[in-house]
Design goal:
This protein is of the alpha+beta class and 121 residues long. The chain has helices at residues 19-33, 72-86, 101-104, and strands at 8-9, 38-41, 45-54, 57-67, 91-95, 110-112, 116-120. The radius of gyration is 14 Å and the shape is globular. The two termini are 21 Å apart.
Length: 121
């Protein structure tokens, strides 16, 4: 387990995702297998991310987040931010193919472009 969270680092498990995400799932799997992305798993959610330089700082970029239980985002958001901080990242960001995230996210999240959201940690 990663200290202070319920997450463990594991290989990407088999996931049932919406058909519009299936094409991207193969890419995410390949990034994990090549050790260019990391998969965190807990009973609530599966998250795949990488660390990248952006504007002179380190960012945790979430490639994939699949809730396994209702309410996972609310329960695990603080843990994801804690992992990002522990890894030296100053921001967490993700790209959403789904509309509606802007209404769901809190004021700490800001849009970046047309499909990305970012927050400081």
């Amino acid at each position: 387990m990663i200290a202070g969270t319920q997450f463990t680092i594991q290989p990407l498990p088999a996931l049932r995702v919406r058909p519009n995400l299936t094409a991207g799932l193969a890419e995410v799997q390949a990034e994990c297998e090549a050790d260019r992305a990391t998969c965190l798993v807990c009973e609530d959610v599966v998250i795949v991310f990488d660390l990248r330089a952006r504007d002179g700082a380190l960012e945790m970029f979430v490639w994939l987040a699949v809730a396994l239980k209702h309410g996972a985002f609310e329960r695990q958001a603080a843990a994801v931010c804690a992992v990002a901080r522990d890894l030296g990242a100053t921001t967490v960001a993700f790209e959403s193919r789904r509309r509606g995230w802007a209404r769901r996210l809190g004021p700490e999240w800001h849009p970046r472009g047309t499909r990305e959201f970012v927050r400081e940690v």
